[in-house]
Amino acid sequence: MTQALLLAGDYYHNPQFAFDGVGAALRAQEIEVVCTTDYAALGAEALAGVQMLVILRDGIQFPDGPDAPPVVWMQPAQEDAIEQFVLGGGAFLALHNAGWAYPTKGGYRRTLGGYYIGHPPYARFAVEVVNHEHPVTAGVESYEIEDEQHWLHWDYDRVTPLLISQGQDGRQSVSGWAYEYGQGRVVYLPHGHTPDSILHPAFQRLLGNAARWLLRRA
Questions:
Q1: Angle CA(59)–CA(213)–CA(110) in degrees, nearest 5?
Q2: pLDDT tens, 132-154?
């Protein structure tokens, strides 16, 4: 059976939200999901037996507590392992905060295809499907959702934007993309701060579509 490694959970995000909500969407596609919070173990060995990597966690940890400066946890060897995994044909599904506070240069940044800039307070905002032809957005219409509206930079010269978010203040951001990297594929999708945002019907549909496209089933 196809197997996915789902890394989730950090100071700001309960891992069980992702394990339950994202895991259900993947299992519905007959994917076995291995759930972990152990960011330190993410590397070539952990990726050797799976076909898909899923991340819903940020790139920092607080070894001295939340009142002390955080540190970036991802090491160069981990960046290289992820990049080589995708270049060699692996699937990478990056969710919500998977672009926040990670190394801004190197293998992870190249693989993701963009990075996080910031977000306004949790609120309701609109998401427009701007690419109806891509398999990831099949059957998905523009929608509204309550979540964090992440603002992101994306590599417009090589990444296909799928969604655009617009807040109540009118500010917009790319809010989902897909592209092929080497022999593998990458999808970034925007939501995931709360259980309700993960279980939003449009997001669940996007997750299922993304899994099929990443694994070349669609």
A1: 35
A2: 999 999 999 999 999 999 999 98
